[in-house]
Amino acid sequence: MSGAGGFNSGVGVSLENIALYDRDSQKPPLLSEVSLEIKAQEFFVLVGPSGCGKSHILRVIAGLADGVSGTVLFNGQTLTEFSPDYRNIAMAFQTQALYPHLTVKQNLEFNLKLSGLPRETIAVQVAEIANLIEITDILDLKPAKISKAKRQLVALARAFVKHPKILLLDEPLSELDSRARMHYQSVLRWCCNNLHITTIYTTHSPTEALTLGDRVACMDGGKILQVGTSAELYNKPVNETVAKFIGYPEINFIDVETQAEENGLFLNLIKAKSLIPAPNKFLNLFTEYSKAKLGVRAENLQIVSVDDTDFSQKESTLLQMIVEMLEFQGANTILYAVKESLSLSIIIHSTEHYEIGETVFVEILENNLLLFAEGKCVGF
After folding, report:
1. DSSP 321-369
2. How open is the CA angle 176-226-347, to the nearest 5 degrees?
3. CA–CA dist 296, 206 (Å, integer)
4. 193-229 pLDDT, tens per residue?
5. Per DSSP, what are the bridge partners of residue 363?
6. What crossing angle do the helices spanning 148-160 and 178-194 adopt, rounded to 10°?
7. Alpha carbon distances (Å) from 132 to 156, 157, 181, 190, 375
8. Beta strands of 188-317 (E only): which ranges?
9. What is the pTM of this model?
10. What does the alpha-carbon distance between residue 301 and residue 319 come to, in Å, rounded to a whole number?
11. Cα(199)–Cα(286) distance, rounded to whole angstroms?
12. What DSSP assignment string belongs to 58-121?
């Protein structure tokens, strides 16, 4: 795909102490203390539940929000200095806002004509993007004649056809089915990499965020909770909210309190009414936190085969649980097991067979175990 002059250096975006206030002054801010440094040519993803402020950040960057305090800079320039005519920024929001009286092709051409590009250049750029986004078969149709999913692809194509330096995408694939969404995630990354575009993308799907983002910002309640790579957010979440939101199945939280015994320090698993030895990696931390939560990913639990002879020897390290549900996922299955009021999700290989109601023995693996206290992650 061809680029445009000056694109190779890329454009970084800096947000400093951004706050966005509701028109109703009695309501809390829509955004609060948002500071981000988005690198040039980075694919940066904002992820969080609906209403957390993701779309507001895009509108602030685009200069479309009122009631904003703080600073937004593009390679050190204000929006007016960087892109006075919006030529350097393109947006694709959930509401596609296509011109209903124009065909798909005319929608793609519209902004290019306003920019004064030669007719031949416009034709090349439109054909190029239409082929890539796979909408050549609908170029002569008007928006009312195509599906919501196709309209979303047209809006995406209209953003790319400008060859922008900054691309703002607000859940641009939400109308697509899962197979098409996976395909267009790959197309998106290819376009952004080859056009050297700095992309800021919102989604409520943790899976999509971890798949697409060079870095990901996890949001909640109008605030940035954590910024990092997919691996950093998954393996080293800063708090319970991030840990719970990032990853599927949800992380298992186990409420514990310390209990000293003659043979060492143990953890009382409150909901399971069980004792297990305190993990060695957290022994120092348990001198500070007598009540805490273990954070255990489903892949860090394993089902252990024991017989009557050796169960008594291993009993202190295992949880005897009942299989409650099985979620088949192809190569793997998520097994849900319960003991008293504690429920755990465990990833097993689908060649392993268990029945609902069967008794299993579950071991908590110390590797990648997390410790939370007062809502924050205090141990990895």
Report:
1. EEEEEEEE-SSEEEEEEEETTEEEEEEEETTS---TT-EEEEEE-STT-
2. 60
3. 18
4. 988 999 999 999 999 999 999 999 999 999 999 999 9
5. 302, 318
6. 10
7. 11, 9, 15, 10, 45
8. 198-203, 215-220, 223-228, 252-261, 264-269, 274-277, 291-296, 301-304
9. 0.91
10. 11
11. 43
12. HHHHTT--SSEEEEEEETTB-HHHH-TTSTTEEEE-SS----TTS-HHHHHHHHHHHTT--HHH
Which of 47, 61, 76 has its CA nearest to residue 18?
61
Tokens of 370: 């997390």
Query: Over the Cα atoms of the chain, what is R_g?
Result: 26
Residue range 82-103: mean pLDDT, rounded: 85
Q: How far is CA 174 from CA 43, 150, 163, in A?
A: 18, 11, 23
In residues, how long is the chain? 380
Q: What span, in angstroms and rounded, lies between the C-alpha atoms of 125 and 63?
A: 26
Contact 219, 52 (CB under 8 A): yes
**For the chain, percent helix, then strand, then coil, each to nearest 5?**
30, 35, 35
User: Looking at residue 370, what DSSP letter applies?
Assistant: E
| Packed helices 119-133 and 178-194: angle between N→C axes, nearest 10 degrees | 140
SS3 278: coil
Read off the DSSP letter of residue 223.
Answer: E
Confidence (pLDDT) at 347: 98
Q: What tokens appear for 207 in the block?
A: 């899976």
Q: What is the mean pLDDT of residues 86-94?
A: 85
Return the SS3 of 291.
Answer: strand
Query: Which tokens hold the place of 101?
Result: 């009286």
| 261 CB-side CA count, 13 A | 14
**Strand order in 215-220's β-sheet?**
89-92, 166-170, 198-203, 43-47, 215-220, 223-228
Please provide residue 231's backbone torsions phi and psi, each rounded to the nearest 5 degrees: -65, -40
Q: Which residue has the tokens 């099985």?
A: 326
Amino acid at 370: L
Residue 276 has pLDDT above 70, yes or no: yes
- Compute φ and ψ for 76, nearest 5 degrees: 85, 0
